[in-house]
Amino acid sequence: MNKSEYESRFRIRRLKLGDTIEEFDCGDEDLNDFILNEAGLYREALLSVTYVLEDKSDNKVAAYFSLSNDKISISDFESKTEFNRFRKQKFVNEKRIKSYPAIKIGRLAIAKSEQRKHIGEYLLEFIEDYFVVDNKSGCRFVTVDAYVDAIPFYIKNDYQFLNNDDEDKNTRVMYFDLVSLL
Q1: Which of 131, 104, 125 is nearest to 53 (CA)?
Q2: Do residues 15 and 39 lie in contact, with contact meaning Cβ atoms separated by under 8 Å?
Q3: Helix (H, G, I), strand (E, B), or coil: what is residue 17?
Q4: Number of neighbours of residue 105 by Cβ within 10 angstroms
């Protein structure tokens, strides 16, 4: 499907306080539990905001993602030299600050019935465009703690590893530079 086909079939809606999702199954219990039981609690505590991709015909949730504020900072790197290398690579005018604003994709899940239909790519494009078009919050990067199984998906969508400190972990910190869309 192309963007207009997604937009004709689905809508993206930000969950409001008090909204509940009754049914969702992406095949991952942790991701299911978040949308069914925890998304509202995170919203009330001002920790994240969750968006759902709903089928316009029946309001069934096809996918969801949650976003929270993040940063890429000097503490994310093993040494100041490594951070300076990252900074010089990304900022031509050498913006000398110790952290750079980012938005974190805390969760991203696609219902089993909708998997393998490129909805994940559509959602990443939506998120990236959301922060680039009209520069909604002065955000330079999108970050994600990608499950090992999801790493190929993020690489395919131009996300990069932030560092190599987490090579042997269950998740890897990855980022996308929003300036690449300008």
Answers
A1: 125
A2: yes
A3: coil
A4: 23
Per-residue pLDDT, averaged over 140-157, amounts to 95
3-state secondary structure of 174: strand
Whether the CB-CB separation of 142 and 57 falls below 8 Å is answered with no
Give pTM, 2 decimals: 0.91
The pLDDT tens digits for 95-146 are 677 888 999 999 999 999 999 999 999 999 999 999 998 777 889 999 999 9
Average pLDDT over residues 79-96: 77
Per-residue exposure over 58-93, b if at least 16 CB sit within 10 Å of its own CB, e if not: eebbbbbbbbbebbbeeebbeeeeebeebbeeeeee
Residue 167 has a CB neighbour count (10 Å cut-off) of: 8
Name the residue with tokens 């900072």: 73
**The two three-digit tokens of residue 86, written as one number:** 């990252």
Task: Compute the distance between CA of residue 157 and CA of residue 121 in angstroms, rounded to an integer.
Answer: 7
